Amino acid sequence: MLAIVIPYYKVNFFEATLQSLASQTNKQFHVYIGNDASDTDPSNLLEAYKNSFLFTYKKFDNNLGGQNLVKQWERCIAMTASEDWIMILGDDDILGPNCVEGFYNNLEIIKKHNVNVVRFATIVIDGKGFKISKKHEHPKFEKSTAFFERKHQGGTRSSLSEYIFKKTNFKIKSFPLAWHTDDLAVLECSNYGLVYTINTSCVKFRHSSENITSNTDNLKQKNESSFQYYFYLYSDKINFFTKKQQRIVVYKLNKTVATNKKNVFRILQVSFYYLKHLKFKNLISLKIMIVKSLFRKL
Questions:
Q1: How many angstroms separate the CA atoms of 42 and 44, rounded?
Q2: What domains, with CATH codes, occur in the chain?
Q3: How much is the average pLDDT of 175-186?
Q4: How far apart are CA 86 and CA 258, in angstroms?
Q5: How far, in Å, CA of 236 to CA of 231, rounded?
Q6: What is the largest CA-CA distance in the chain?
Q7: Going by DSSP bridges, is the β-strand pair 85-88/163-166 parallel, antiparallel, or unpaired?
Q8: Tens of pLDDT along 239-281?
Q9: Phi-psi category of 114—alpha, beta or left, where left has phi over 0 and alpha has psi -120 to 50?
């Protein structure tokens, strides 16, 4: 069975999320809603949908998302029972009516190819629910490392809500603001292997002034997350990537360092790592990027 986990905090678009669950053509799922000590009580909304689908609701006494969003996700995931598959759905995102049906219709082929990560096509919507993007589709079968390459070259996009993960394989790493946590989850849960896409079903990802993606007053934290993410990939997982993809990892890592060049410790940390492993080209590229960024400031 499928567990759909909703880490709840904002009520603004929550009814649209619940309505999308009630509209599913296949009801073989259990929804787990974990309230992150929100000031907005969703009880009235949940009461209205109590006969529409199976759900479990819990209000936590303390707010975790404000300090560590991943910790909030983890305690919501801990609410789940014996389900084999798990989806983390944003409290403002919307499932197309045939998402669950599409998942079960493809489950045999998913199991046949030992796939641990499944995704849907997506459309980005604004705060009013209007489409602000074309439909993003993906190859039916794609290595997660190839997706990494496409995404970081601007060829596609991604959000946590569009994925279903094999529960036994699901693991997440905490970065500030949970920035890049979803990217790493796709890589690690797939064992840097295949992701299966259901393009006939679509998730609507909401891009509004209230979510982290569109927020621009937290750029320093996002940069720190990016540094931790790329340094982890480079130092621990680089052998899973092709030579071309490795160059992307190095470029992205160096860029996070150059963007925050006042952080001398970070410059030294990466420089010493390159030296220790005799990666002189990477070190030279880092120095050039830092110098260029200095000249752009002049």
A1: 6
A2: 2-206 (3.90.550.10), 219-297 (no CATH)
A3: 94
A4: 37
A5: 8
A6: 63
A7: antiparallel
A8: 999 999 999 999 999 999 999 888 999 999 999 999 999 999 9
A9: left
Q: Are 5 and 90 in contact (CB under 8 A)?
A: no
Q: How far apart (Å, rounded) are the C-alpha atoms in residues 80 and 252?
A: 36
The answer to pTM > 0.90 is yes
Q: How many angstroms separate the CA atoms of 149 and 72, rounded?
A: 29
User: How far, in Å, CA of 150 to CA of 245, rounded?
Assistant: 10
Average pLDDT over residues 143-149: 97
Tokens encoding 18: 């619940």
Proportion of the chain in helix, strand, coil states, percent, rounded to 5: 45, 20, 35
- Could you tell me which residues come within 8 angstroms of residue 159 by beta carbon, excluding any fewer than 6 positions away? 90, 93, 122, 182, 203, 205, 213
Q: How far is CA 107 from the centre of its chain?
A: 22
Helix (H) or strand (E) holding 34: strand 29-35
Q: Which residues 6+ apart lie within 8 Å of 278 measured at CB?
A: none
Alpha carbon distance 240, 23 (integer Å): 40
CA distance 60 to 292: 48
Q: How does DSSP classify residue 137?
A: -
DSSP 279: -
Task: Give the residue among 252, 225, 224 at the shortest CA–CA distance from 238.
Answer: 252
Contact 123, 136 (CB under 8 A): yes
d(CA 234, CA 23): 43
